[in-house]
Amino acid sequence: MDLENQKRVLDLSEKYGKENVVVILGTSEAESAGLTAETVTAGDPTYAGPLAGVSLGLGVYHMFELKDQVDANVYDEQCGMMEMVLDVDAIIKEVSSIREQYSKY
Amino acid sequence: MLQDKKVIIIGDRDGIPAPAIEECLKTTGAEIVFAATECFV
């Protein structure tokens, strides 16, 4: 995860309270989805950014997991094509696994 | 689930970019406080 974005996530979770912040991902692969989810829950696994050693425990979901929460027409328009070409099951499995292990909220 | 939550969007240029996620979330009652599109390649 981009180091500047790590800083923003850290600042915003302190500003609004970790229990009030949710991170939504649009990552294209299970591996990058897992790394990003891990960064905002357990801390930066690469130990490169501001979230290294910082376990925020934020709620984190991939956009594909929220299909039932949003307007169906808007979802189809914005995410429908990527849903067809990406490995949705693998991405959801990875993000939900990280969430179950490290999310506190 | 997202009602009254502060949402941070981390989009992906090769996946779902942040503006597309923003459009989807507009209908949920969530407040988007930050949105960025990364390139993971």
Can you put this structure into words, describing what you see?
The complex is a heterodimer of chains A (105) and B (41). Chain A has helices at 3-16, 30-39, 72-85, 88-102, and strands at residues 21-25, 59-62. Chain A has 105 residues and is mainly alpha-helical. Chain A has one domain. Chain A has a two-stranded parallel sheet with strand order 1-2. In chain A, helix 2 (30-39) runs parallel beside helix 4. Chain A is globular and about 40 Å long. The relative contact order of chain A is 0.21. Chain B is an alpha+beta fold. Chain B has one domain (6-38). Chain B is built from one helix and two strands, in the order E-H-E. The longest helix of chain B is centred in the middle third of the chain and has 8 residues, at 18-25. The mean pLDDT of chain B is 94. The chains are: A mainly alpha (105), B alpha+beta (41). The A-B interface holds A 1-2, 5, 8-9, 12, 16, 20-29, 32, 36, 40, 59, 63, 66, 69-71, 74-75, 77-79, 82, 86 and B 1-2, 4-12, 14-18, 20-21, 23-28, 30, 33-34, 36-38, 40. Strand 1 (21-25) of chain A pairs parallel with strand 1 (6-12) of chain B, so a sheet runs across the interface.
